[in-house]
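User: Hi! Is it possible to get a structure for several chains at once, not just one? Here's what I have:
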Amino acid sequence: MKEAVIKTEKLSKRFGDFVAVNEISFEVFPGEVFGFLGANGAGKTTAMRMLCGLSIPSSGIATVAGFDVYKQTEKIKKNIGYMSQKFSLYEDLTVLENIRFFGGIYGLSDKQLKEKSNELILTLGLQNETKKLVGALPLGWKQKLSFSVAIIHQPKIVFLDEPTGGVDPVTRRQFWDLIYKAANSGITIFVTTHYMDEAEYCNRVSMMVDGSIKALDSPANLKKQFSASSMDEVFFELARGAKRGE
Amino acid sequence: MVTLTNITKTYNKGSILAVDNVSFSVGKGELFGLIGPDGAGKTSIFRVLTTLLLPDGGSATVDGCDVVKHYKTIRSQVGYMPGKFSLYQDLTVEENLHFFATLFNTTIEENYELIKEIYVQIEPFKTRRAAKLSGGMKQKLALCCALIHKPTVLFLDEPTTGVDAVSRKEFWEMLKRLKKQGITILVSTPYMDEATLCDRIALIQTGKIMSIDTPQNIVKAYSGKLYIIKSDSMNSLSNDLHNYENTLSCYAFGEYLHLSFKLDSENFEKELLNYLVAKGHKKIELQLTVPTIEDCFIKLMSSTE
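Assistant: Yes, the chains can be modeled jointly so their relative placement is included. Here is the combined structure:
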């Protein structure tokens, strides 16, 4: 087995009396597409923030890309990519400006920036849009561009927080093609979604309920374990018993 | 109850066409769904109907009132829950509800029956400020505030976006109960699986309506056969099917791929199997399936492009 790129052991986060994340332990391996599922308020965002180095855990152990989530948060940030539906790109910058801006932040050299932007624009077929403001692009293109920008520095892991929310069904599937391509190039994918059909596209899926991971396995095994015909049913079976809302 | 005739709406001095010549009508007591992705024009249509935006062309009426001429009457009669949470964050649950009741010249007591079932779920937190509520509770409070004046028509703009599958189900149960009380409901959603919960739906994409009917009839109107297929090697299966000459469309759908042929016949099924076996696929499962609304949407999208 290859060395895990994300490793947590009894990782917890408490806010006062409230245990947002309760002793979660799991590993994610290089090139894996890992689905991080759960109901609203289950603690997904809090857990993700700890893994991205944005929030210091209350207790437990975790390493991301080999770095400690307590002491090496800056190193973690350099080695990951992050994309969400809400924050993606600057709408009032052009396509090219966004690529340069984020590439610069991720520390690419001028030469790398030039190569990478050309490559990215070609792959996405955006040759005629480079000077357009991102705000003027259709949502589907924005999301694809935003994903490509999040992995422009070839990070070890990319965190995707509901990347396909509100996207049309065709673009949603094209987006998953991009995810697979990135995974095949060795980038580990850590993704959350409310679309249960997308859970099927993950190699392994974890289900979080009330701060704890209640199940973790491949979609096929989870369905077997819960005698369910779809991931939808698995989700209902697990999340129905949830005590807390968001 | 609601009619739109050739409604058009553009932004940026006409350079962005958000709503393109849209016409449809919604009957009294109907639960009508506008189904489409972000940017399809759903919110613009809702804002025209709630008199918050002037259309560039066409006309529309709500409960017999013109959306331009009689906007004041419409505003006092409809309920509107915008996609973005728009209650006062620094007022408590109870204060928000009281505020909206007063705005509409009514009281919480007068229409309590209508909201009771939803309100009891958030009543334990009535002294909590709206900003401190969870997402699910905010949604319930917003629905109560939109209902407190007993509207004739309720407009819900993406009430379930970003909401998990279990809470979405609960929300739709609430809508069904409201419908029983005779309220006409227009709801928009990007989740195709919610379409089947509506009486009638309009599938909308880039400002145009692609189809309007009952969910059952839209599925019935799907022409040609649709198959589900899987094999031991899903990665190469998709590629191999895309390269197969008789493939019309092939896309991922949960653990299977959905596949349709250019020409349907039983021989083609056998030919396809032979082709895939020759490509090294094992454990091939090929089965006819009933299309979902999402399949219909994808098909309509490709035929209008």
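The domain at 6-239 of chain A is CATH 3.40.50.300 (Rossmann fold). The CA atoms of residues 223 and 229 of chain A lie 6 Å apart.

User: Great, thank you!
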